[in-house]
Write a structure and sequence with these properties.
The protein folds into three domains: 7-90, Winged helix-like DNA-binding domain superfamily/Winged helix DNA-binding domain (Arc Repressor Mutant, subunit A), CATH 1.10.10; 95-163 and 273-310, Periplasmic binding protein-like II (D-Maltodextrin-Binding Protein, domain 2); 167-272, Periplasmic binding protein-like II (D-Maltodextrin-Binding Protein, domain 2). The chain contains ten helices and 13 strands. It has helices spanning 7-19, 22-29, 33-47, 63-90, 103-108, 110-120, 133-141, 203-214, 231-239, 286-301, and strands spanning 52-54, 59-61, 95-101, 124-130, 147-151, 159-174, 185-186, 195-198, 226-228, 244-248, 260-266, 271-279, 308-310. Strands 3, 4, 5, 6, 7, 8, 9, 10, 11, 12 and 13 form an eleven-stranded mixed β-sheet that branches. The protein has a two-stranded antiparallel ribbon with strand order 1-2. The radius of gyration is 31 Å and the shape is rod-shaped. It comes from Marinobacterium maritimum.
């Protein structure tokens, strides 16, 4: 059975055509002349055509060889370009990373980590998506993003959830609210007559609903009359005196909540777990893995907000 024709046969053919000599071509390719001759012979046998006219003094392309040369050169060039691109990606000289994150993660954690990553890997393109929890998981499942950073919204069996940080739930109120000066508050003391909540498609609301239904928190969330789809909108409503809300500490530490008071809740102490969400069985690209490593290292060296801590 003859050997399959591959890139080495093209390389040998191109080099012999350029040198006009098996001896010189063998030297350039670091092969013995007999090995090079056998390689060209395999190519000619597979093609069923003579590609070189040989004399005792020279080796020149046949008519068929002349027609094949530009094709061989293009194929060889494309192969080398593709291989160079793969090596560049492996060495993080170029590439693309797509990440999805909850609003608080995108606003509070990613910017400074991305700044460090961009300085170290300036040729890597990064795309950031700010999504609700359910959409985040779907983005990962459909391979639209390399990974997501958010809470475990629905415990998808095809996803891996690696804990990254935890942040404690608290009550967010205007600074002039009667409760604003308290250092902590029990869940049973939370007034529910003017409570605002995030909409049901958010991970925070889904988690609060689970806590309420399981009896962990003594609140009836179905009484809430105003729902908001994102924390920034929630902050605006609270600032206008339209109510108060329940949020994890990181979500309440973004710029839009400046001027509002966060009161940590206890009895029980309840925390949100923010995870790195990846698809099971799918390895991260070198660029995505590098970004994730940068984020983890960054979290080890920055001062996190009060009531927020890493899980490691």
């Amino acid at each position: 059975m003859s050997s399959p024709i591959g890139i080495r046969h093209l390389h040998a053919f191109i080099e012999v055509s350029r040198c006009g000599s098996f001896t010189r071509a063998a030297g350039h390719l670091h092969l013995t002349q007999s090995a090079l001759t056998a390689t060209i012979k395999q190519l000619e046998q597979d093609a069923g055509l003579t590609l070189f006219d040989r004399t005792t003094r020279s080796v020149v392309l046949s008519a068929e060889g002349e027609r094949f040369l530009p094709v061989a050169e293009r194929l060889f060039s494309d192969f080398n370009a593709a291989l160079t691109d793969l090596r560049a990606r492996a060495q993080l000289q170029q590439g693309h990373v797509s990440v999805a994150g909850s609003p608080s993660v995108v606003t509070r954690l990613l910017p400074s980590a991305l700044s460090q990553f961009s300085r170290q890997y300036p040729s890597i393109k990064v795309n950031i998506r700010d999504e609700s929890a359910g959409n985040l998981e779907q983005r990962v499942l459909s391979n639209e993003v390399d990974f997501a950073i958010a809470g475990n919204h629905s415990q998808q069996t095809d996803l891996d959830y690696a804990p990254l940080i935890r942040d404690r739930y608290g009550l967010v109120v205007p600074c002039d609210h009667p409760l604003a000066t308290l250092r902590s508050l029990q869940w049973q003391q939370v007034p529910d007559d003017n409570l605002l909540l995030l909409s049901e498609d958010t991970g925070i609301r889904a988690q609060l609903t689970r806590f309420s239904q399981s009896g962990q928190i003594p609140l009836k969330l179905d009484r809430v009359q105003i729902e908001v789809s994102n924390p920034a909108g929630m902050a605006a409503l609270i600032s206008q005196g339209l109510g108060i809300t329940l949020l994890p500490a990181l979500a309440a530490d973004v710029h839009s909540f400046a001027g509002l008071a966060f009161i940590p809740l206890d009895q029980p102490v309840i925390e949100r777990e923010i995870c790195i969400i990846t698809r099971k069985g799918r390895a991260l690209s070198p660029a995505a893995a590098a970004l994730l490593d940068t984020l983890r290292q960054h979290l080890e060296h920055i001062a996190l907000p009060e009531w927020v801590h890493t899980t490691e």
